[in-house]
Amino acid sequence: MNHFADVNWLAVLLATVGSMVLGMGWYTSLGKQWMDALGKTKEELMPDGKSSPMPFVIAAVCQLIIAYFLLLLTRAILDTSATDIQIWDAVMVGAHMWFGFILTSMVLNHAYQGQKVSLTIIDGGYLLGVVLVQGVILGLLA
User: Fold this and answer.
1) Residue 110 and residue 22: Cα distance in Å, rounded?
2) DSSP string spanning 20-79?
3) N- to C-terminal Cα distance for the chain?
4) CA 120 from chain center: how many Å?
5) Predicted confidence pLDDT, tens digits, the chain (142 residues)
6) What does the CA dihedral 135, 131, 76, 61 come to, rounded to 10 degrees?
7) How high is the pLDDT of residue 142?
8) How far is Cα of residue 117 from the mean position of the Cα atoms in its chain?
9) Is 39 within 8 Å of 82 (Cβ atoms)?
10) Cα 30 from Cα 36, distance rounded (Å)
11) What are all long-range contacts of 96-104, with beta carbons under 8 Å and residues at least 24 apart?
12) What is the C-alpha separation between 100 and 115, in angstroms, rounded?
């Protein structure tokens, strides 16, 4: 249970910021394809013409939670302290979490929702990027 102690919150926060920056770039460059895959227009997502900050707040909280658990799981799986984590370790744990939990859950939900495969590829690719970026930052700083 000592894995819950001594969390490097600066590393967790920087991993969160890093994955948010990735999201800005990812969805800025793939925005049109994402909207097409989603099957919605900008007007449908923003009926009053204004974007709400709430999705960004929710994204930041979720990515903070992902970074926190990526750190905890990397330490627990490797049975190591926070200072012994290597970049490759955190990246591999993140990639396995993505494939085993994130991607499979997304594929399952998108299949039942009748979503396009392209939406799963865009969103799934982004979430892979999240855990990889966070893994690198946590591996460097935690």
Assistant:
1) 23
2) HHHHHHHHHHSHHHHHHHHT--HHHH-TTS---SHHHHHHHHHHHHHHHHHHHHHHHHHT
3) 17
4) 14
5) 555 668 899 999 999 999 999 999 999 999 999 999 999 888 888 878 788 899 999 999 999 999 999 999 998 898 876 667 889 999 999 999 999 999 999 999 999 999 999 999 999 999 999 999 999 999 999 8
6) 110
7) 80
8) 19
9) no
10) 10
11) 97/70, 97/73, 97/131, 98/127, 98/128, 98/131, 102/127, 102/128, 102/131, 103/127, 103/128
12) 20
Kindly state the tokens that stand for 36: 């097409």
Residue 99 to residue 120: CA distance in whole angstroms: 13
The predicted structure's pLDDT at residue 5:
66
Q: Which two tokens stand for residue 135?
A: 């893994």
Residue with tokens 């935690």: 142
- Amino acid code (one letter) for 118: S
Quickly count: other Cβ atoms within 10 Å of residue 110's Cβ.
Answer: 17
Question: In this structure, are residues 14 and 77 in contact, taking their beta carbons and an 8 Å threshold?
Answer: no
Residue 91 amino acid letter: V
